[in-house]
Amino acid sequence: MKLTTLLSAALLPAATLAQSVTVSTGAGSAIQTFYSLEQGELSSVPLADWDLAFEINAFNSSILVNTAKGLKAYETTAAFDEWDLVTVPDVENWTEIQNSEVYWSAGALTHGNDLEDPLGLSVGWGTYNPVTHTIIGTRIYAIEDADGGFRKLRINSLASGTYSFTYAAIDGTDQQEATLLKSAFVGKNFGYYSFATNGTVDPEPMAADWDLLFTKYISMVPTAYPVTGVLQNKEVTAMQVDGVPISEAMWNSAELDTAINVIGSDWKSFNMTTFQYEYVQDRTYFVQDRASNIWKLVFTGYGGSANGDITFNQELVSSVSVEEEAYGQLAVYPNPSVNGQVNMVIGSELRNGRLTILDQAGRLVHAQVVNGAGSLNNVPVDLAGVKAGLYMARLEADGRVFTARIVVE
Is the omega angle on the peptide bond into residue 130 within 30 degrees of 0, that is, cis? Predict the structure, then answer.
């Protein structure tokens, strides 16, 4: 059955019924595809087009390295003013660094700055000056190409919305002084730069327009390894529901997560006996887009390196067109329950609706039709036989949704 109740399903347009979608990352996962859950594919761009990505949001300063195309990033042991002394690779003494697969704002060059426990005024590649409101570079990096060549790199500063940086071949030849202006990428998450063209590139749609990025990226599984999967945009949250039949999974059974790799790549695995990809059969994802719509995604296929096709079923299960009342509008008493009996109380003028009770895994444990005569002000609910625990009550009526938590003792 559909995840939504009969009432909410009737309120959503027919276009929201589950549909099969295929998004391609190309042969060898050489393509990045930006995807809108409402509009579909927005753009597909070659993964290899860029080398560095600079965060654009006003107070952010993360810098990504395109490790997915085969680059490796190292923090050297040299001091910032020892630029001319870095002339040969020394990977045995350098520290290899990676982009976070959890936060966009923790790029490889933010290495050393734990976002959950920041190192004072350090942003990784430099130090913030609270007087001048600039960031001054403090580290020298080395970037290894897929073919084994090396560049050295330093980020000189971020001042007045302009990143200034220097890079050269490891022996100091072909030195380039470069800048990237945040103002050139207004409305984007990142501004991108290519060593090949010594200039900026602009592969990313406006941040407000896309929800998911289908791409190759580096995952710690448990060490750094290239995988192909799905990452969420900033301000797009998601949750993974396991161990529940797909038809019964509920989006309000747990908290949505801000980690960008909730979907990630582990919805598939490669069977080394059959040489076929396999998919977790009882895994459902729910994604909340920037407009607060909730989408249900179930991944069903992957074409591997041959074509990079990712196939999934997509369904809109909660729309902002259905008014969602604030938590706490539905009162429950007694709470905890007494002998499995509780009453639902709401003062709003409502008539017919449907009440569901879900456990913490999203499984349906109770459902009943509620008939009101203008005001649903005392609805008895019999939970006798339901084991002790925390449950979610959800009442949908007259196009509105009310929720509350119930403790059964």
Answer: no
